[in-house]
Amino acid sequence: MPLDRNDKALRFIYNRQHFGIKLGLENITRLCRILGDPQDKYEIVHVAGTNGKGSTSSFIAGILQAAGYKVGILTSPHLADYRERIRVNGQKIPPSAISDFVEQNRRQIVETQVTFFEVTTALAFSYFARCKVDWVVLEVGLGGRLDATNVCKPRVTVITNISLEHTNLLGKTTYKIAGEKAGIVKGNIPLVTGVTDNGNAAARRFREICRERQAPLYFHHPRSYSFNQNGRGDFLEIHDGHYAGLKARLGLAGKHQAFNANLAVRTAEILNEKFARISRLAVRKGLENNHWPGRFMTIAGHPMIIIDVAHNREGFGVLADTLKNHFPGRKFNFLISMVEKKKGDWCLHDIAPLAKSISVAPLENARRDDPYYLISRLNYNHGRVRVFPNANMAVKDLLENSDPSDILVIAGSHFVVGELAPLIKRDGF
After folding, report:
1. How many CA atoms lie within 13 Å of 403's alpha carbon, on the beta-carbon side?
2. Would you state the pLDDT for residue 25?
3. Which pTM was predicted?
4. Cα(first)–Cα(last) distance of the chain, in Å?
5. Domains in the chain, please, with CATH?
6. Quick check: 138 and 149 in contact, CB under 8 A?
7. Which is the most buried residue in 13, 272, 390, 411, by most CB within 10 A?
8. Helix 174-181, helix 201-213: angle, nearest 10
């Protein structure tokens, strides 16, 4: 069957992946200039960090939308549908907008030799301008300083946290990685960060860069909020600042989401001072109504399925803590698929004490980790450890052979969640 124009456009964009990852702003700057610099036509919040970027971006976008603004958001990667990356007021970009963009700009895209992520960023910039949004929340793809999103001129920058990742590209120390992430900081533009000012390397680097660029710097203060959990859900309470006393039930589960939500509230405080009108009610609604797929997402059934996009050791540690808090004393059947060089052995060690079984399967993605190598590095001496040819076979086996009262946890990558989404939807979970 011949491809329609929408399928052709997506195939064209995906084919840009053969350019790989190219850090640098020259090509995206050229393409944006050709497009009329659409990124300059709305206000922007720019979000970087190792973990929590997507959730924090979603909380910020939700708060702004609840305050009455038309809000675009660019995130990556997607789970099951490319269009998830680009949304306006929660609605995915329509297929026709993608095909229109490609058809109108194919020659310029080819001539500028932009990568998959660069053309996606340019598409998002152009679509947001076409929709006449008020605000855009931009999630950095990789790093910060040389990321394609860094051609923007934000009102506020946000860096969630810093830990070792992509060390071959960003540096082998937290100090160097912090420097790359803080490359999004602009002159006189505030930086809000989840990093605590306790003399650590990331905090030192942020201070240096913000001093150099005369950018106000707002560190994380652990006592500025509290998190509590009961039968009605997970709750955040703000203890100081403009929204002191505010209490909200979080739309995303887990203590780590309270951290992300607090970061969004601190960002809202700064926006409210100069750039936007954000009431306490808008903040509360933005936190409560937030839905971000793949973040400790529970799918009812027998057995229950929990999906989480934890993909590095910090993420797996958070996943383990959240499981212990929500299901004290329980054991879980894990299905793990990871991309290469994610230190999967350490990730598995974090969940092993909670495991009734661990199943490992390779991704369809070319960057997949070798599950046999992963298992060989795991000193796991109790329960069942199994390797499957692919994630679909693994989840089918687990669903067929689990007790109705069991809990299946799927984690390791955005890609594995995307691969399994059609199966889970088809089976009605």
Report:
1. 6
2. 94
3. 0.84
4. 31
5. 5-288 (3.40.1190.10), 297-426 (3.90.190.20)
6. yes
7. 411
8. 30
